[in-house]
Amino acid sequence: LFAFTLGYLVKYTINYKSVVSQAIDHYGYGYEPTSHEGIGGSNGKIPDCPYSYVISLYGHNHFSPLVDFLHPTLKAKYPKKYSLILDIMDAVHLCLIMVDDICDHSPKRKNHTTAHLLYGSCETANRAYFVLTKVINRAMKEHPVLGIELLRALEIILKGQDMSLVWRRDGLRSFESHGKESLLTYKEMALLKTGTLFVLLGRLLNQGGHQSDDLLGRFG
């Protein structure tokens, strides 16, 4: 009886430590505070939130060169709309990157530590949802048509992400299609995740118009 009790306690302690370790890793509390030279100021300290950190890696208004190329007069004629479009594109692109890195357990992003390893998975994911919610609300108030296009694109992108996660878990057999059709479904999944981002940009620039869908969808 003593041996049985001792064995149970040892097993329970090991399992408990395993669960605790998983929780620590998941929330990101097991990592030492990290500083990156040149990020967040001359003192090398990281920004105070995950989104600001990822912005510092990619740069604010990441899509401005493409926007300026596709619509050279937008900034001068409609500066508020120009700013909104760039903020929408930053939010969608970077927030989905933040969540993707959590899903993939990615350790690096542009050769820097990923946000969830610095701030924890929960704070990083919540900040992504918070930023997206704010930009949706802003778009709906300032340009409702753009807000509707943003919501449409997010639904499509997240559908692709959902398909990707299921595929990663179960492989091609997770798709209802088989053989060559399953490969086509895989390509559709990739297009939903990446091509939709560029289609969204065209829709925003064209006030919801579809005329650039085919061209910009190829970027995916």
From TrEMBL:
GO molecular function: prenyltransferase activity
Pfam families named among the record's database cross-references: polyprenyl_synt (PF00348)
Swiss-Prot/TrEMBL GO biological process terms: alcohol biosynthetic process; isoprenoid biosynthetic process; mycotoxin biosynthetic process
Classification via InterPro entries: Isoprenoid_synthase_dom_sf (IPR008949), Polyprenyl_synt (IPR000092)
Iron-sulfur listed as a keyword: no
Keywords from the named record: Transferase
Name by which UniProt lists this protein: Prenyl transferase
Gene this chain is encoded by: idtC
